[in-house]
Design goal:
The chain is built from four helices and seven strands, in the order ααβαβββαβββ. It is of the alpha+beta class and about 160 residues long. The N and C termini lie far apart (about 70 Å).
Amino acid sequence: MKIICLQKNSYLSFKLTIILLFVYGISFSQTDSCSFFGNKPIFPYYHPTPPNNGKDFYTIKKEFHKIITAQTNFNGIITVNFFINYKGETDFYKTQLCDLNYQPLLITKDIELLCSQILQAVKQTSPWKPQLDEQRNPINSRKFYSFRFNNGKLIEILPK
């Protein structure tokens, strides 16, 4: 009976050690993001008002069309998500693809250049003004742009 209890206790302590290492690893790996966000919460792009870079949407749209020139037959949506911190700095860009029925897709060689151009175009929308909360304090926020393509032609950019 004592041997079984010892085995259970050593197994439990092993599991606990693994869990602690995992949790420590996660918290350690998030140190950069916590300092980027100033240990403040992150709000959605629409709360309380959308983030602003001082340019109207149609000016940004023209800039996107100048940069996004890759020739493809891509049918789908390419979305770039990113964060704007309380200082107006951007980081943590993530590109996601889906077909026109919103089924996830992977980046392939034939659209790699297109995805690269889109990411570059989105990064050039900086500098951003920090979003303000109801008390007019700067806050962290998220932002995204989605580009809809039909037969390689850019047909829509969201949000407007």
